[in-house]
Fold this sequence. Notes:
Blueprint: H1 4-16, H2 19-26, H3 30-44, E1 49-51, E2 56-58, H4 60-87, E3 93-98, H5 106-117, E4 122-127, H6 130-138, E5 144-147, E6 158-172, E7 182-183, E8 192-195, H7 203-213, E9 219-223, H8 227-235, E10 240-244, E11 255-260, E12 269-276, H9 283-300, E13 317-320
Parallel strand pairs: 3-4, 3-5, 4-13, 7-11, 8-9, 8-10
Antiparallel strand pairs: 1-2, 5-12, 6-10, 6-11, 6-12
Amino acid sequence: MMDFRALRHFVALAEELHFGRAAQKLHMSQPPLSQSIKRLEQRLGVQLVERSSRSVSLTLSGATFAAEARQLLKQVEFVERLVKQTAAGEVDRLMVGFIGPALYRILPRTLELLRVRMPGVDVRLEEMAPDEQIKRLRYGQLNVAVISPTRMDLKGLSVRPVERNSTVLAIPADWPFANRTEVRLAELKDYPFVLTPFDRGPVSAAFVDACNKAGFTPKVVQEATLTNTRLALVAAGLGAALVTETARYRHYQGVRFLSAVDLCDDAFIWELSIVWEPRGASRALRTLIESFDKAVADLEALPAKGVLEPTLSPPRVSEKWHS
């Protein structure tokens, strides 16, 4: 079993690269620190630190171990803090990761409902790629991830679909057929595209296959993971992009949305899900999940392509954006 005290000792040494300074930081003397590092190396069966009379450096194994040990200690600290806050009834903050399409309908409605049920909860939103969300979720740095869960290891986590939509094309507003409602892929053979990186999911690869069937290979001029980034590039005239149909609900200056009649199979059905760690879920987290469920029911009751107008003032949300 891993000794968390030894992990703290090693992380301090990795940060200071000096036994004396690390010992001082840990409020201990140098000999016990050196012995603790040696016992850790013996337990792992690898050398973590290169020692000399003048310097201390990490081996390749040591650098790898230090990065993971830092994250593990952060998770332990998070769990300890969460348990204490839960016992005191003080858990009133939720960290929510999301991808851009969550902002089009489901997330705003969910936050409105949450504000009614728990007006004091502080929701922190951060847009990031799905794999980063799941990493932070497992390390205890997020409470909920809002992602499109394709080709991801979600073992041990709870997953619940909240939206299912088709894929549409976003094109610059000054392209010749921008005023139409649909287009065939063959009409786009001479135009550039902005796609999701091929290792981020199957849609881009399926799109290339569809283009090949239409008689051409798409010219990919830029790759971008986040939907809002792709839409910004479309607005700048760089090319067309594949986005979820719910993007139609938001107004983007310089962007038009068209259905592609060739993109009708299951490979182009886009699903949005919420993911969370079910163990020890706080009351605030359970209420957030219930708010997602209610938002799904509300939106499903709307007419096709209807927009749910806010009936409340904007929820109190602290936002941190990454592109």
